[in-house]
Amino acid sequence: MNRRKSMDVKKLFSKYSIILILILIMVVCTFANSSFLSASNLINVCRQQSVTIIIAFGEMVLIICGQLDLSCGAVIALAGCLSVYSYKAMENMLLAFLVAIGVAVFVNLLNGIMVTKFKAPAFIATLATQTMARGAALYITSGQNIYEIGKYTTVGQGSLGPIPIPVIFMICIFALISYFMRNTRWGRSTYAVGGNTEAANASGINTKLVIMKAFLLNGVLVGIAAVLFMARVNGGLPAGAAGYEMDGLTATIVGGTSFTGGIGTPWGTVVGAFVVGFLGNIMNLMSIDSYIQQIVRGAIIAFAVIWDIHSKSRQTYKKGK
């Protein structure tokens, strides 16, 4: 009986450990700097992390089915700049969103084709489109930022009551992703493909279609993130969003998504994003050198991946016994 209770406690701790870590970080940050728990600071963190979380949702879906995307930062720049151009020409926000989503979906369609049809590793395929997308963004804008974007900024800087608009986008996307991953055949197939591709094929799952849909969904999310990013920074930045793919990957891995595929949850991704976001925020409040911050972020990624591999190895060893 005691042994069973001990196992139940271990399972609960394993499942909710990331939440305990988030709470611990918030407590430490509160003592480290009195401004941390101020409403303005927390709202600012939520606004900033909303874009990262939306990107991380796309990374999460891809990683669960055994893929990843290194191109999303560059695609945000390309899709966002074209979106800003379209808004300045037509002053239609719906069109601006559709342009950004269309561009991002097209790039991810290329990623999906290279991975599923030509069997290119996702790392290489998305690295190639990253380079092309960044080059295209710089070429189209002649390397110059786009300013005077008018009311385009509303979706990135505005609020509905006390809630920032990007946070509302994030909450809605969280609800949709959670539903699709848990309650649809495609969502369940995504876990199956990432867990064991050969077994998924044997059970009749069209693995190539599942992977292609994952890339296309990632494209939709990256397109939305592109508009919110450009609106928040108040301009079209062809060199912007550099490194955002790593922010998304970090949030996803820290949030418990297994880098080997088949495991991950949207809520874990949200918590992982805030763990990283709060750490970055407290380092900024304490004026820690930006280079040191990069070292810390890299260490977080390394620790999360090592922990994931260790956990998987331990589970495999227990099953073998």
Please provide a written account of the structure.
This protein has helices at 2-32, 39-64, 72-90, 93-116, 122-140, 154-157, 165-183, 185-195, 197-202, 207-233, 244-254, 266-285, 290-320; strands at 159-160, 163-164. With 321 residues, it is an all-alpha fold. The protein has a single domain (39-320), classed as ABC transporter involved in vitamin B12 uptake, BtuC (Orthogonal Bundle). Strand 1 (159-160) and strand 2 (163-164) form a beta hairpin. Helix 2 crosses helix 8 (185-195) and helix 2 crosses helix 11 (244-254). The model has no long low-confidence stretch (mean pLDDT 91).
What's the gist of this structure?
With 321 residues, this protein is mainly alpha-helical. The chain is 77% helix and 1% strand. The protein has a single domain, classed as Orthogonal Bundle (ABC transporter involved in vitamin B12 uptake, BtuC).
What attributes characterize this protein structure?
single chain; mainly alpha; ABC transporter involved in vitamin B12 uptake, BtuC; 1% strand
Topology:
Elements: H1 2-32, H2 39-64, H3 72-90, H4 93-116, H5 122-140, H6 154-157, E1 159-160, E2 163-164, H7 165-183, H8 185-195, H9 197-202, H10 207-233, H11 244-254, H12 266-285, H13 290-320
Antiparallel strand pairs: 1-2
Helix pairs in contact: 1-12, 2-7, 2-8, 2-10, 2-11, 2-12, 3-4, 3-5, 3-10, 4-5, 4-10, 7-8, 8-10, 11-12, 11-13, 12-13
Beta-strand segment tally: 2
Strand content: under 5%
Content-based structural category = mainly alpha
Identify low-pLDDT runs.
Answer: none
Q: Average pLDDT across residues?
A: 91
CATH architecture: Orthogonal Bundle
Rg, Å, rounded: 20 Å
Q: In the CATH hierarchy, what is the class? A: Mainly Alpha
With helices defined by DSSP (H or I, 4 residues minimum), what is the helix count? 13
Q: Please outline the major beta sheet.
A: 2 strands, antiparallel
Through-space gap between termini: 22 Å
**Strand order in space, largest sheet:** 1-2
CATH topology: ABC transporter involved in vitamin B12 uptake, BtuC
* Count of all domains: 1
